[in-house]
Design goal:
Distance between the termini: 77 Å
Strand content: 35-45%
Number of strands: 27
Structural class: alpha+beta
Shape: globular
Helix content: 10-25%
Largest sheet: 5 strands, mixed
């Protein structure tokens, strides 16, 4: 009996040693495993031990993990970030889904903005590498929020201190300069109206201070705005244009904004502004470009989407950049007969297109069948309703560099 107890205790000790041995993973093997884990689970794995926390929190690891998973939509699918309702949506989870039903559809993930009582209304300035840039206005005070919806990391930036009159629309853009040799750096462009009686705007670009104290939490010491150019619009943009017209579209290192009956183009490297004519088309008694139109990139060309009065949406592309005569009708979009503004958000893996309609409705649109299915729809009347696509990442906005 004593021999059996002794043998049992020895077996237990051996099992403990085996379990302890099996849990040891060499650091290089551990890193190679963790870089293949999505951002959501990495947030949980940071709590395993101090070693994992330090590894996952390092900027080298986050960049390596993002570059590895970014080209793989199956393991790291795109998500849609929405201002209203406060939610993010898995793009591929929308396939085969019926209309959104709050509380019962797992494709919708509610998000809570940082300190929502302090930041008032929000507008989306852009997204890049899993970071979403937001313009916040609270009691007429404006700040810029660089936010990672996956990790909830937040960087607050002041708007330029200038002679801005605070009247009219702002224009903005956030992302990488696709023609820049500064790999890993970001650009944030903000265009503010600086005169009261004439539609004159000043363009500012955010830069990181190379001599700043890295331990400081103040955005004033870490970053500064550079005044780069001025532009004058033909006239004040019509009411309601702010929703889709203020967020820029990047093509070949140039940011494009839809203005009134023209496209305003800002060259990021040269800091110059030019105007691009829209197609000269007429439908009945109305001119197609008097209405709200949006911009995009189609087959590597600058594209414009408009809906002439009492007609279907049309997509036009500029085959030869900068040449007004090269505008060519690319496609006609069916089904959206009662809508005013249309913005494609991205493609689903089954070939359907996710489309944002008037900032209030997300639709799965099949170009083959010329039909659409509503995924989310709301009656919120605020102009702050908006949506944008982003790729989940573990990149912290506090560690990125602006140039």
């Amino acid at each position: 009996m004593a021999k059996m107890k002794h043998a049992s205790k020895r077996l237990q000790r051996e099992e403990k040693r085996i379990v302890k041995f099996n849990f040891y993973i060499p650091p290089e093997v551990c890193e190679n495993i963790l870089v293949r884990v999505d951002a959501k689970n990495l947030c949980r794995f940071k709590c395993v031990c101090h070693g994992w926390y330090d590894l996952i929190s390092s900027s080298r690891f986050t960049k390596k993990q993002f570059e590895l998973l970014k080209p793989d939509p199956e393991r790291n699918p795109d998500r849609i970030f929405m201002i209203y309702p406060h939610a993010t949506i898995d793009m591929n989870a929308c396939i085969g889904s019926q209309k959104y039903n709050e509380g019962s559809n797992l494709m919708n993930k509610k998000v809570r903005y940082p300190k929502p009582s302090s930041f008032g209304s929000l507008r989306i300035m852009g997204s890049c590498d899993g970071l979403v840039s937001l313009m916040s206005e609270y009691n007429k005070n404006k700040v810029i929020l660089m936010w990672n919806p996956s990790t909830k990391d937040l960087l607050t930036l002041d708007v330029p201190e200038s002679e801005s009159v605070g009247y009219g629309h702002e224009f903005y853009w956030f992302g990488h300069n696709d023609c820049s040799s500064n790999n890993g750096s970001y650009k944030l462009v903000l265009c503010l109206r600086t005169t009261l009686y004439n539609p004159i705007y000043t363009i500012y670009v955010l830069n990181s201070n190379s001599n700043s104290n890295s331990n400081s939490n103040s955005s004033r010491s870490l970053y500064h705005w550079t005044r780069t150019a001025e532009l004058q619009l033909i006239s004040q943009m019509p009411y309601g244009r702010r929703l889709h017209g203020c967020r820029g579209t990047l093509l070949n290192g140039i940011v494009h904004w839809p203005s009134y009956c023209e496209v305003t183009a800002y060259h990021l490297s040269e800091a110059t502004v030019r105007r691009i004519a829209v197609p000269s088309i007429n439908h009945g008694d109305g001119h197609g470009w008097d209405q709200c139109f949006t911009l995009g990139v189609f087959d590597g060309c600058l594209g414009a989407i408009c809906k002439p009065p009492e007609n279907k949406f049309e997509i036009w592309i500029m085959k030869e950049y900068g040449v007004g005569e090269s505008w060519t009708k690319y496609a006609q979009v069916e089904w959206f007969t009662k809508s005013k503004c249309l913005r494609p958000l991205g493609f689903l893996k089954n070939g359907e297109i996710m489309v944002d309609i008037d900032g209030r409705t997300l639709v799965r649109y099949s170009n083959n069948w010329k039909t659409g299915k509503v995924v989310i729809s709301h009656s919120h009347r605020s102009n702050d309703s908006d949506a944008i696509t982003y790729v989940p990442s573990f990149i912290s906005p506090k560690e990125i560099e602006f140039k």
